[in-house]
Amino acid sequence: MRHYYTVEQIRDAEAPLLASLPDGALMRRAAFGLATAIAGELTRRTGGVAGRRICAVVGSGDNGGDALWAATFLRRRGAAATAILLNPERTHAKGLAAFTKSGGRIVETVPTASDLVIDGVVGISGRGALRPNAAEVFAAVDDAGIPVVAVDIPSGVDAHTGAVDGPAVHAALTVTFGGLKPVHALGECGRVKLVDIGLDLPATDLLGMEAADVTARWPVPHRTDDKYTQGVTGILAGSATYPGAAILCTGAAVAATSGMVRYAGSAAADVVAHWPEVVAAPSAATAGRVQAWVVGPGLGTDSAAAAQLWFALETELPVIVDADGLTILAAPPELVSSRTAPTVLTPHAGEFARLAGRPPGAD
């Protein structure tokens, strides 16, 4: 199970470590983990570290310091290292001194022969899009196709929401420290690697499931099970115009290992031809026993389609509403708001706008 922490929780957990460790020790600990992850990325992409070329794009503050120290450690492993200082007057002094002492060079632009770029522009306290000078640098990096490893978060991506409202770094890998943040679940971070730096973090209720968690919780049939103990899924989808939606939706229910799948609608012949194990009926009322409904894909938006949606929502069963079902629902949304049974809506941006009366926000 992945555990996610707010920026404030991370800062609070860092405070006692910063107070107890020698000055700069926690940064070097994080930077060593960052350098190790970058070395792995270089090896995966190019076959090694020695002789490879890296460029750190360095902002002010600790995030830039992490990048400079990581580049210093990689210099010691034989990599050639350059750095762009976006704000030279506010560059982390000790990190810069170590970098230049190791033989790192300060440059104005990312060398086109670079094998990898380190994004050390802003960290988890950053807000908003990349500033123009950083945006110009990373636009060139994107054009050159050079992979980027981001320090803590990709710069320009909001640490709390993953939202992007302007130029941002496109990271192949993000290396974060101490604990995962919401951005690592919600934003475009590429692959995410967590480096343990010894933080004592509190319990969190923001969790993310991994494949092993799903596997452990997925119900496995036993000899006493039958189709009803494994769940009967009812599908109200598709039409004469869109039979493919019925086939795809029903197939998904079969693939999810429902104990039994019932289809109700006008595309029954097409569905059964593709999925002979499905039990078909002409309408929801004649479908038989169902334990959860899926309503909407390719259903249409006429009165007959609306009647099928109302039928499902008026039951006490779990319901997933998608596609045309959401368009129908936009007129009388109280049918969902008054439900007590589990109800899942799956809108894209346009469907969300119809339901909510406004487009989704940046997050």
Could you describe the 3D structure shown?
- The protein has 363 residues and is α/β, with parallel strands linked by helices.
- The protein folds into two domains: 2-213, 3-Layer(aba) Sandwich (Rossmann fold), CATH 3.40.50.10260; 223-356, Ribokinase (UDP-N-acetylmuramoyl-L-alanine:D-glutamate ligase).
- 37% of the residues lie in helices and 17% in strands.
- The protein contains 13 helices and 15 strands.
- The protein has helices at 7-20, 25-46, 62-76, 93-101, 132-144, 183-186, 211-217, 243-255, 268-274, 303-313, 324-329, 334-337, 349-356, and strands spanning 2-3, 53-58, 80-85, 105-106, 116-120, 148-151, 173-177, 191-195, 207-208, 232-236, 260-264, 279-281, 292-295, 319-321, 343-345.
- The chain is elongated, with a radius of gyration of 27 Å.
**How many separate helices?**
13
Shape: elongated
Share of helix, binned: 25-40%
* Backbone CA Rg: 27 Å
Summed up, the domain count is 2
Distance between the termini: 24 Å
List the helices and strands and how they pair.
Blueprint: E1 2-3, H1 7-20, H2 25-46, E2 53-58, H3 62-76, E3 80-85, H4 93-101, E4 105-106, E5 116-120, H5 132-144, E6 148-151, E7 173-177, H6 183-186, E8 191-195, E9 207-208, H7 211-217, E10 232-236, H8 243-255, E11 260-264, H9 268-274, E12 279-281, E13 292-295, H10 303-313, E14 319-321, H11 324-329, H12 334-337, E15 343-345, H13 349-356
Parallel strand pairs: 2-3, 2-5, 3-4, 5-6, 6-7, 7-8, 10-11, 10-13, 11-12, 13-14, 14-15
Antiparallel strand pairs: 1-9
Cofactor: K(+)
Family: In the N-terminal section; belongs to the NnrE/AIBP family.
Protein name: Bifunctional NAD(P)H-hydrate repair enzyme Nnr
